[in-house]
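Each field is set out as follows.
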Amino acid sequence: MLKFDFRNMLGENVESGNYADEIVSMEVDFIKAMEELKKDNPGFISLLDNFEFVEEIEKIAEEFKWCENFVVLGIGGSALGNTAIQQSLRPLNWNFLDEDKRKECPRIFIWDNVDPEYILSNLEILDLSKTVFNVISKSGSTAEAMSNYLIVRGILEFWNLDVRKHLVFTTDPEKGVLNKIAAKDGISKLVIPPSVGGRFSVLTPVGLLSAMMAGIDVKKILNGAKESRDKMLNSRLWENNAGLIAVHHRLQYRKGRTISVMFAYSNALYSWADWYRQLWAESLGKQKDKNGTDVFLGPTPIKAIGPTDQHSQVQLYSEGKNDKVITFLKVENFRNTVRIPQIHGDIEELSYLGNRTLNELINFEQEGTAYALKKHDKPNLTVIFPTIDENNIGEFIFTYELATALFGYMENIDPFDQPGVEDGKIATYALMGRKGYEDLSEEIKKG
C-alpha cells in the first residue's frame, strides 16, 4: 500500500500550511461531496464493481499476440495513461530489449501527437506486416487519432495488408464512426464504458489493452484500485488519503497557492505527473459552477522530475512566489540497486560518494528538497511507493481520480465535462474544412 506523508502540509510544521481547525472546517463539505459522489456513482467508480470486461481484453490480446509491435493511436486520456503504465511497470528500455527479454511480448509505441516528423520517424522503424495498431477514440471523430488512423490505413491498403489483422478499435459501444467501420470491415473492437470520460479511462480497455500486450497483470492494477475505492468511499476525512489531498489543495488554493507541482523522484513515475496534469487541469479548470455562475476555478498543475529539476526549478520553488503546493513521488525500494564505486578516496569532494548507492542518493535528494521547501515555508506532501508494482499503481490511479472528483464536488463544479476543450475541437473542424462548419471557418479566418 502507498504511504502519504502530509506533515509538511500542516501549519504546525510549515507556517503557510493548513491548521487542524481549518481542516476540520472542511469536513462538512467533504462529507457532502462524498455523499453526492456515491449517489452519482460516476463511471470511474462503478467500473470497479466487476472485472468482466477484462475477459474481452484477454481475447483481443490473444488474437494479436503474434505481433512484434503494438501501436496505440490516441491523444490525451487515450494516451497518457497508457504511457504511464508502460513506463512505470515495464523497463524504460523495453522497446530496445531483445524479444526473449520481453518474454515474447511486443514493443509498445504510443502515438500521442500529429507532428509530421514524429509520425514519419515512427513509421520508418516499423515493419507494418508485424504491427498492430490500436485506434482509440470514443467518438470516432477525434481529429488527431483519426488522422493517424487514416495514414496507417492508407499504408496498409497500399501494401495489400489485411486491415482485420492489423487494426483493433477501442470506442463507444454503439455510437461513432469506428463502430460503422468495424462492422463493415470486420475489425475487432473493445468498448469504452459510456459513463467514463477520457481522462478517467486508464482503468478501462483504453489503458489496459496495451498493458496486457506488454505482459502486465491488469487484474492486479484493478485490484489495487478497487481495494483503494472500497476503503476510501467509506472512510472519514482524517483516514481518507484522497479526501486529504483534495482538502489540503483546496485550502491552499484559497490562500493563493494555485499551482500544484507533481515532483517525481523516479523516471518510472514521471509519466504519472503527465497523467495528473490532464486529470487536474481538465477536471478542475472551469469557468462556471453547476449553477452557471462564473467562478473561474483554475488550479494549475506542473510536472517536475528529481533530481534533474532541482537544477532547473527548485530555486523558484524555494525562494520564488509562495503560490505552489509540491507533491513528491518517492520510491522506497527500487527494482534495482546501483552501487557507486570507491574511487578517488583521497579527494574529499568525491570520497563521500564511494560505497553508497544511487538509490540512497536519489531519496536523500528528495528528502533534502522537501526539507529546503519546508525551511522556506513552502507546503509540500509526499506519496511514497514501497515498490512500483501493479497494486500500488492501481491505488495511485484511483486515489487521484477520487481526489480530483472530490475537489470538484466541494467547489460545486462538474469535474467530468470539458467545454473549453470542445471549443478548440470545433474550431479545428472548421479550419480543416469539415462539412457544416463553414461559417465558423470564415469567422476564424477574419480574426
